[in-house]
Amino acid sequence: MNVQIEKLYKIAASNKRCIIGLMSGTSLDGLDIALCQITGAGVQTKVEVKHFKTVSYSNKIKDNILAVFAKKNISFEVLTLVNPWLAKIHSEMILDALKDWKIKPSEIDIIASHGQTVFHSPFRLHKNKNFGNATFQIGDGDHIAIHTGIITVSDFRQKHIAAGGEGAPLALYGDCLLFNEIGVPTILLNIGGISNFTYLPGTDNFDGALVTDTGPGNTLLDAVVKQFYPHLSFDLDGEIASSGKINYEVLNLWKSLPFFSEAIPKTTGPELFEWSSLMTMSKENLGIVLNPQDLLATLTLLTAETITDCIKRVVPNWRETRRFGSGGGCHNKLLMSHIHRLMPGSNFMNPSILGIPGDTKEAVLFAVLANETLSGGKTLYGDNPSVCMGKISLPS
């Protein structure tokens, strides 16, 4: 038997696994690295986050990703080059983190790598009848496995699409296993570049559980900040937006975009939400050009209202739910104050009270998905495909 296959078999057969979960979202902030000790599988899954860090992307890394990010027309050569290059960058980040934590690579069982999404194209967006749902992530798993010497599970979204899904959001698969409490309906909101939420009805069979994107999270806000305030990466606590005035006429025009009224569940990406297109929309339809402060103020409320409108639309008992929030947007005080005002009652808590700190949640999710790929069985997730996701790459 191939020695790596034998090792993989022993890892899968064990009741405890040491898995590194990796996540880099559409905000392009950096790479989240979560070292997790996972026991069990399926509804018996237990996760302990041993270590966590976010390694920020340098301007060089961001520029190379942006060259192929969310654009219909790119250099195919550059895409081909950046795919393995980014995997090597991620590998170096992992090895540096392990060195900081004084942990040998040989002590890690599995790396679970989400990769970097560069284009997300569900049928609802491209509407080309010759093709179905599609998505593409770079940062090849074989290169990570070779450069780290650790078995790597990656490219999770393709199996979801092959089984009839849109490839996103995948949060439901981890949320069902980690956060479901019988008799307690739960909402788990994540505000990254794109916002999404999971609803768990609190049933033992997950009947009625769902996950959906709601629209923009930080993607529009960060893009505007980088355009008009190039010395900043984001609007800390919504301070710039707080100095502006909300234009409700423009807000209502933007909320008329077809995506917001489409059937749920649905997915989207930065390909659909681009700030200059929204500015053109308001100029051509209303003759209004917003200054940067008013633009940020209006976009912040757009994010809040489209999140809460979507939740209220599909969760009739939203007032009775417990609520958790994660992702970079949950650190934006102005944005969260809008959300709490629009959804009165209990505020969105950090899932750290359940043992999973909010900033680690997405990276932990992919560690859980890899754990299911190796050791899980058939778990029903509401109307979502019941599949184990990820391709396995073996070191040489």
Task: Explain this structure.
- The protein is an alpha/beta fold and 396 residues long.
- The chain has two domains: 3-168 and 360-393, ATPase, nucleotide binding domain (Nucleotidyltransferase, domain 5); 171-354, Nucleotidyltransferase, domain 5, CATH 3.30.420.40.
- 39% of the residues lie in helices and 20% in strands.
- It has 14 helices and eleven strands.
- It has helices at 3-13, 59-66, 76-100, 123-126, 141-148, 157-162, 171-179, 219-228, 239-242, 248-255, 275-286, 292-314, 333-342, 361-375; strands at 16-24, 30-39, 46-56, 110-121, 134-138, 152-154, 186-191, 194-200, 210-216, 322-326, 391-393.
- The strands form two sheets. Strands 1, 2, 3, 4, 5, 6 and 11 form a seven-stranded mixed beta sheet that branches. The protein has a four-stranded mixed beta sheet with strand order 9-8-7-10.
- Strand 7 and strand 8 (194-200) form a beta hairpin.
- Helix 7 (171-179) crosses helix 14, helix 10 (248-255) packs across helix 12 (292-314) and helix 12 runs parallel beside helix 13 (333-342).
- The longest helix is centred in the first third of the chain and has 25 residues, at 76-100.
- The radius of gyration is 21 Å and the shape is globular.
- The two termini are 14 Å apart.
